[in-house]
Amino acid sequence: GEDVEQSLFLSVREGDSSVINCTYTDSSSTYLYWYKQEPGAGLQLLTYIFSNMDMKQDQRLTVLLNKKDKHLSLRIADTQTGDSAIYFCAESLSSNDYKLSFGAGTTVTVRA
Amino acid sequence: KAGVTQTPRYLIKTRGQQVTLSCSPISGHRSVSWYQQTPGQGLQFLFEYFSETQRNKGNFPGRFSGRQFSNSRSEMNVSTLELGDSALYLCASRPGGQNNEQFFGPGTRLTVL
Fold first, then answer.
1. Which ranges constitute the DSSP H helices of chain A?
2. CA B67 from centroid of its chain's CA atoms
3. How far is B70 from chain A (nearest CA, A)?
4. Given phi > 0 = left and psi -120 to 50 = alpha, else beta, which region is A70?
5. Size of interface A-B (CB pairs under 8 A)
6. Which of A23, A70, B53, B74 is the most buried (most CB within 10 A)?
7. Is the peptide bond before B106 cis (omega within 30 degrees of 0)?
8. Of A35, A95, A99, the CB nearest to B48
């Protein structure tokens, strides 16, 4: 995950919005993903965005992509205690290379 | 539709032994990738199989190998286990073609003593 960077921790109050940020360095990235991992579990695909898009919204989740700055963010509206988890940003480099390069993950803690 | 299944879920081995992990992708998915997750190195790509052929390989020693069967199920093998091989091994399933949605299984937790 050396090409994908994320902040390590985020604490948010229940009901507030969470914003998790990610930067990537490879301008040839074609797909960018957000995964969620709860303790003892595998990775749950939350959403992904194609590199020619600026924004994607899916219920409480909004993904913003700034390709010029190579910056990706995930906004979770109305954060709930069940949103406490580690969130991973990942990229795949080309339309024929499906290898995912992951960031180190952001641990989100939702407090009451 | 059933998700990605991995067996076994937990495994304890000793140094020098070998281990085989299994992954059954989502029905209809033809691509299986394997990842290693450790606290120190994070998530690292091992290899990808598509239609029984290895299409991509990560930077791991030759002790790590895999294969895929005609029903798309995949196995990965680690020989001559080392303490540093202790990790969560995750399998990801993808439909194939240009579809880039990748779905992960629950993982196999391998502990090497």
1. none
2. 10
3. 20
4. left
5. 56
6. B74
7. no
8. A99
User: Does residue B43 belong to the interface with chain A, where contact is any CB pair within 8 Å?
Assistant: yes
Residue B26: its pLDDT value, please?
96
Whether chain A has a CB inside 8 Å of the CB on B53: the answer is no
Cα–Cα distance between A85 and B24 in angstroms, integer?
25
Q: What is the pLDDT of residues B21-38, one digit of tens each?
A: 999 999 999 999 999 999
Report how far apart, in Å, the C-alpha atoms of A29 and of each of A111, B41, B67, B70 are: 35, 21, 27, 31
C-alpha closest to that of B113 among B8, B20, B40, B11: B11
Of the candidates B13, B31, B11, B22, the one whose C-alpha atom is nearest the C-alpha of residue B97 is B31
Among residues B38, B47, B113, the alpha carbon closest in space to that of B81 is found at B113
